[in-house]
Design goal:
It is found in: Membrane. It is a single chain. The chain is of the alpha+beta class. It has two domains: 128 residues, Mannose-6-phosphate receptor binding domain (Cation-dependent Mannose-6-phosphate Receptor, Chain A), CATH 2.70.130.10; 56 residues, no CATH class. It is 28% helix and 27% strand. It contains three helices and twelve strands; from the N terminus they run αββββββββββββαα. A five-stranded mixed β-sheet has the order 8-9-10-12-11, with no helix packed on it.
């Protein structure tokens, strides 16, 4: 019993460590969604451009650098011949500085590339920027840092998923049903009138429609009587 009592705190620490490790930030490169450890979602998919953005400049001595970037899953088109279109970020020299996702933490998405340099996308929540995103370029050691400032970099501000939307199946059926009934009545009445029918007799299939109320009544009776016909079974 004493041994179990001593082990209990250790087990609790181990379990707490496992829970902490499980609750990590993540980034879905296909959906362009950053999920925090508290399950808040930052959706930047709507910021994708038809052509890659040129971020910079960054002056390194006598050389001016730019970074080409587009929002998930890749550049989409090659801004310069030497740059791969399937790269995530590309330096103006043509080097792909982001091809593989390596780490996600603290609103930073880190990538490795084809060279010794790496890149980082930093999400900066700024609700005052609602149009084109503000993108700045800095360099820390061998890491190119692209900072995105926009309202979509704030958790839950931009659409997390375009669910719903569009016309439902029921709406489509109703849109087909009522015009069909209208055409059926108009065409039917015209045909019957040509045949000499007048008044209600000009309604197509009038005999059937006159029986509909009785059929509905019989249907309700059948349902509420649980199918009993009232006859005694022999």
């Amino acid at each position: 019993m004493m041994m179990m009592a001593r082990l209990a705190p250790t087990l609790l620490v181990v379990l707490a460590a496992i829970v902490t490790l499980a609750a990590a930030d993540s980034f879905d490169l296909q959906q362009c969604k950053y999920t925090t450890s508290t399950n808040e979602i930052i959706d930047i998919a709507g910021l994708r451009q038809s052509t890659p953005l040129r971020v910079g400049p960054f002056q390194d001595g006598s050389i001016t650098y730019y970074v080409y970037y587009n929002f998930c899953p890749n550049l989409g088109s090659s801004p310069i011949p030497a740059c791969k279109k399937d790269a995530i970020m590309c330096l103006s020299t043509g080097a792909a500085i982001a091809t593989t996702l390596t780490n996600v933490a603290g609103l930073n998405v880190d990538f490795s590339g084809d060279t010794a340099t790496s890149s980082r996308l930093h999400l900066n929540c700024d609700k005052s920027i609602t149009g084109a995103p503000s993108m700045t370029l800095t360099k820390s050691s061998l890491t190119w840092v692209v900072t995105l400032s926009h309202q979509c970099a704030c958790p839950g501000v931009c659409p997390v998923a375009s669910e719903g939307g569009g016309i439902s199946g029921g709406s489509i059926l109703l849109a087909i049903f009522f015009p069909s009934v209208f055409v059926y009545l108009v065409v039917g009445v015209l045909i019957k009138r040509r045949g000499g029918a007048t008044g209600t007799d000009a309604i197509p299939n009038i005999a059937f429609w006159r029986e509909v109320p009785g059929l509905i009544k019989d249907g309700f009776k059948f349902v509420f009587s649980c199918g009993n016909s009232g006859y005694t079974k022999v």
